[in-house]
Amino acid sequence: MSISFIAGNLLGRAAISYLIVLVIVSLLSKLDWRLALRRSVRWYGLLSVLVLTLAGIGVAASRGGFAA
User: Fold this and answer.
1) Are 22 and 37 in contact (CB under 8 A)?
2) Transmembrane residues, as ranges (predicted)?
């Protein structure tokens, strides 16, 4: 497994996790996208992205997704 594969996998998972958090925050902000963007980069938004990313990696690893 190359380092570019691992980096791409991590960045892809983080991007998808951020989009999920952005959609949820947007719904909680009554679809005000500017407020949602501000809230999504606060500590709790970034913590949510980190938790979702690590959960996705954990699921992939438990299913053998990182096997060479």
Assistant:
1) yes
2) 6-29, 41-61
Question: Binning pLDDT at 50, 70 and 90, where does residue 60 land?
Answer: confident
Token code pair at residue 45: 């938004």
Distance CA 61, CA 15 (A): 19
In whole angstroms, what is the distance from residue 52 CA to residue 21 CA?
9
First-to-last C-alpha distance (Å) of the chain: 6
Question: How is residue 68 annotated by DSSP?
Answer: -
Q: Which residues contact residue 63 at a Cβ distance below 8 angstroms, ignoring those fewer than 6 apart?
A: none
Higher pLDDT, 18 or 3: 18
Quote the DSSP letter at residue 67.
-
